[in-house]
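ok trying this again, last paste got cut off
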Amino acid sequence: MDVRPEADTLVARLRTLFTWRDDGADIAAWWAHADVLSGLGAALAHLHAHTRPSVVIGPEASGFIIGPLVALQANAGFVEMRKGRADGDFGDRILVQDRVLTRSTPPDFANRTLDWVVQRRVLRPGHRVLFVDDWVETAATAQTARRIVEDSGATWIGAAVIVDATSGQAHPDLRLRALLRRRELS
């Protein structure tokens, strides 16, 4: 965890607003408070400040909230990683297959396999890519993002998340850093 006073204050606030429910973690209050939103971008960007990303990639849906916040702090662009199908169907629109990068996850926290899609034109060789998300349980989405980044010819520089809930498995290849560990949430 970061030792900067503003990061310590943010982490304390995240803990205060967090609740466990019968169906799992409830993080909705994080998005409802301006003080949390205003601090998240800087705190997550600081986890990989030495890497100087040129692009931040975030998965649908929470990654679309925090990704742009981190990108602004890192002076980087933002790339959407959308849930889709291998044929490029996002439900609301279809992208031509040769214009997208598609990968499927290994089983995630709910034992599901998901398809993820990124438009080729926004993730290019020469980009230095930082992945951001709210919560990592199995790292399946982060691993898939890394494969998409590598498929594009861009360079993976790491992952920054709010909560690392992985159960002790090592992911040194992801260079995963977090503001909180699951065990810190009561």
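PB: full thing came through this time. The beta strands are 19-21, 24-26, 55-59, 77-84, 100-104, 115-119, 128-136, 155-164, 176-181.
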